[in-house]
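Lecture 7 notes: from sequence to structure.

We start with a single chain of 380 residues. Read the sequence below before looking at the structure.
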Amino acid sequence: MKKLILCVDRDDDIGEKANINTPIIGRQANLDAAVDLGLKDPEDSDTNSILAAISMYDQLKREGEDVEIATICGAPSVGYVSDQALSKELDTVLGKLKPDTSILVTDGAEDEYITPIVSSKVDISHVRTVYVKQSESVENLYYLLVKTFKEEKAKRKILLPISLALLVYGFFGVADLLYDLMIHGAEALPSLTGFGIGVITFIIGLYLLIRIYDLDEKSIQLLKKIRRAVSTGSVWLPFTVVAVLIGIASSLEGWDVIVTQGITSPPKVVLTFAHTVIWWWLGAIFLHELGRVIDTYLTQGKVKRSFWAVWLTLIALTFILWAAFDYIRVLIGMQEASNVLPMVAVNIILGLLIGILGGLAHRSFRDQQEEEEESIEEEG
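Now the structure, written as tokens:
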């Protein structure tokens, strides 16, 4: 009976980090891949999985078994795309080696997703899960956590939800206390004990968000970009400054509306604020992007055709969101239905019509681009 020792890397660390083409078939090819991956990232668990598979291969060979070894990979976009890639590579391996049964070797992270894919194509006689041994000391645990959170997948899946939860909790906690101070004055001073908790929570959430998206590095790059824009007389900078001022002014106006109307319910606060600032914020973003388009045209002599199609779609979505805000305000008793519902219908219709126009514009630009590419190929 011919056995296949199959090592699986669902998120394609082997291809992404070591730039190795997969599937990898044969002992020497797998050993070379493990060394290359280990040199690129010594702490990647897939290196240990491949070495464990090679060790099992050698053991079975010594026992006289008819055995082959292969490694298959998925894709960085874990899910449907990666599983399709795994299935395709598995078909390639099975077509070449034609095993009767397989031994699955993984790092244990996503066995529940990988096992059904393999078992649907070849019998699995054994599953070997490889765990990397770590010291139990606090220092090594801290080090392991720090290194794990440097991985993009870990940051997005674990840290991002925590960061957003802390930011929202801290923001509304601070906003509620500031509102009490503005309305009740000295009577609200006893509640200031929670102010520090809100501020600390918000700062921790903000810090995590900065680390997740490397906003510190991006801020440095932005400062350099502003310096270059000033020295070269870029059109982008004044447009961006005006956009930022519009965003700040509209936010202050939204807060003023909330205070003036004496709104205290969090859902009503959010709805009122969003309903007040949505068009101003869209205009600010449009000014910022328009400045970039003009600057690109002046420096490079070209403009992305998709710009207007994208903005028609954004305007359409804004009309629909505005209508949704109005309708929700009616449902919770903030506005009279007779005064608002006709405008809700008009805004939805406008949003749909503008969305269709944006779709047609996008299709037109795409067709023009394809025609230009075809003409270039014909000339070449």
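The radius of gyration is 29 Å. Keep this in mind for problem set 3.
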